[in-house]
Amino acid sequence: MSGVAMNGKHIVVTGAGTGIGRAIARRLGRDGASVTLLARDRDRLEAVAAAMEGPTHVAACDIRERGKVEKAFAGAVDHLGPIHALVACSGIGGPNGGEPDADRFDEIVATNLNGTYYCCRAAHERLAPGPEARHLILISSILARIAVPKYTGYSASKAGLLGLVRSFGAELGEDNIQVNAICPGWVDTDMAWDGLDAIAGETGGTRESAYRDAMGAVPLGRMSLPEDIAGTVAWLLSPDARGVTGQAIDQNGSAWVG
Questions:
Q1: Which residues are tagged catalytic?
Q2: Which domain holds residue 213?
């Protein structure tokens, strides 16, 4: 998608301080969009904004708190105008455990599912007028598709996002609002490497052996890059994807095919 196509478009990217969200924000900025960067850590967001091309706005917000989400999106509109798209990347990972005093299920679901829902509703209320397409794009996970022990919170939350996409796609389509998800597999981010370190700790292996074992289940034999996911987002926002809504795009090196 060319920069000309994105000029004048305001896109909110949550989770923009690190990893996939940061790569998406950078790509959209290069393509000419005005970008609101939203996450909890303002310092990280400011660092991303300093290297961005084009207008940016920083909004530090914990998406688990709906009132703060509403305030952050209202501020985004005040700074950069009505919203043309939301790319919801904010999320936390890892196993949730099962012991009552150490179970992260509620925290994970509150962030990944509830928080994303709050962002979708806040964005929808502030979308630019049609008739051109507007977009909600949610970053889910391959763990919405496959079973992994001890990741019940993460898997449940990411599967829930696919339910949101199907329902929102049916609800908002008549207003020319396209709603889609991307389900990445292994992506070269701190979250992925933390997961490999956890596997290595459980098995008594090394990070390198954990990586080799994990990539053994990926036919392409490698992790995706955050920039790969950003490219798919750019395509979904382009006119080339005008017939795509209510879908989940699996981008996982063929580690899961369905």
A1: 141, 154, 158
A2: 189-223
